[in-house]
């Protein structure tokens, strides 16, 4: 894919490479127009935004900035294209999806499940503030390659597309998501580890 220019709020960014794609959205590594700008992450949804997308975005941004949780990055900017599909720009964090880390043999599956515990506690703190993650899936759980610490991506982004305000069902869905990630990790076949060097 050729790099292309994209405007997200006041920020102009250039797409570098695709990072992933699902039926609902595509994610790209992007760079800002300033040489000093760090790498960023652009998520582009394939369906139009629900009414009230921008007020919800600005409310989420303000809530996450005031929370100042070390492991949660507030979104930086948002945009809607000509047909109404939204995009959100966030900080790019290096990491390996937790399933890939286990499949490669570099992380035991039960150690991986244990690394979900602090993320569950983080999400409970968010719930107490009226925030939800909204999309706890394996692809949104990354492991830092240096520290081994697990992180959550896309905190609060999926509820931006919902047609209703945050309610108990969305909070419950976060716990269902963690249970599903743990079950997927538990059911992964044993791995003998990375291939040996000849």
3D architecture notes:
- The protein is built from 5 helices and 9 strands, in the order E-E-E-E-H-E-E-E-H-H-H-E-E-H.
- Helix 4 (116-128) packs antiparallel against helix 5.
- It has 2 domains: 1-92, Phosphorylase Kinase, domain 1; 94-198, Transferase(Phosphotransferase) domain 1 (Transferase(Phosphotransferase), domain 1), CATH 1.10.510.10.
- The radius of gyration is 17 Å and the shape is globular.
- It is of the alpha+beta class and 198 residues long.
List the helices and strands and how they pair.
Blueprint (H helix, E strand, L loop, with lengths): L4 E4 L2 E11 L3 E8 L6 E7 L7 H15 L9 E4 L5 E6 L4 E2 H6 L5 H6 L1 H13 L12 E3 L6 E3 L15 H19 L12
Antiparallel strand pairs: 1-2, 2-3, 3-4, 4-6, 5-6, 7-8, 8-9
Helix pairs in contact: 4-5
State which percent range the strand residues make up.
15-25%
Uncertain runs with pLDDT below 50, 5 residues or more? Answer: 1-8, 194-198
Give the beta-strand count: 9
Mean pLDDT: 86
> Spatial order of the strands in the main sheet?
1-2-3-4-6-5
Largest sheet at a glance? 6 strands, antiparallel
Number of helices: 5
Full CATH superfamily name of the largest domain:
Transferase(Phosphotransferase) domain 1
Q: Please report the distance between the alpha carbons of the first and last residues.
A: 35 Å
Question: Based on CA inertia axes, which overall geometry fits?
Answer: globular
What percentage of residues falls in helices of 4 or more residues? 25-40%
CATH architecture assignment name of the largest domain: Orthogonal Bundle
If you compute it from the alpha carbons, what radius of gyration comes out, rounded to the nearest whole angstrom?
17 Å
Q: Please trace the helix and strand order, writing H or E for each element.
A: EEEEHEEEHHHEEH
Name of the CATH class of the largest domain: Mainly Alpha
Integer tally of domains: 2
SSE class:
alpha+beta
CATH topology annotation of the largest domain: Transferase(Phosphotransferase), domain 1
- Described by its quaternary structure, the protein is single chain
């Amino acid at each position: 894919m050729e790099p292309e220019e994209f405007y997200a709020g006041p920020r102009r960014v250039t797409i570098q490479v695709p990072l992933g794609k699902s039926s609902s959205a595509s994610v790209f590594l992007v760079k800002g127009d300033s040489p000093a700008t760090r790498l960023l992450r652009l998520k582009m949804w394939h369906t139009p935004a629900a009414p009230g997308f921008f007020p919800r975005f600005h409310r989420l941004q303000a809530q996450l900035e005031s929370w100042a949780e070390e492991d949660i990055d507030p979104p930086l900017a948002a945009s809607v294209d000509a047909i109404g599909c939204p995009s959100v720009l966030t900080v790019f964090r290096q990491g390996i999806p937790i399933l890939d880390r286990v499949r490669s043999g570099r992380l035991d599956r039960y150690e991986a499940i244990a690394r979900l515990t602090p993320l569950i506690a983080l999400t409970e703190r968010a719930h107490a503030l009226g925030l939800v993650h909204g999309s706890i899936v394996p692809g949104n759980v990354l492991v830092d390659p240096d520290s081994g610490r697990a992180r959550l991506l896309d905190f609060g982004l999926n509820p931006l597309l919902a047609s209703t305000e945050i309610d108990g069902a969305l909070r419950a869905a976060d716990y269902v998501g963690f249970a599903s990630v743990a079950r997927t990790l538990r059911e992964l076949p044993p791995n003998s580890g990375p291939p040996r060097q000849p």
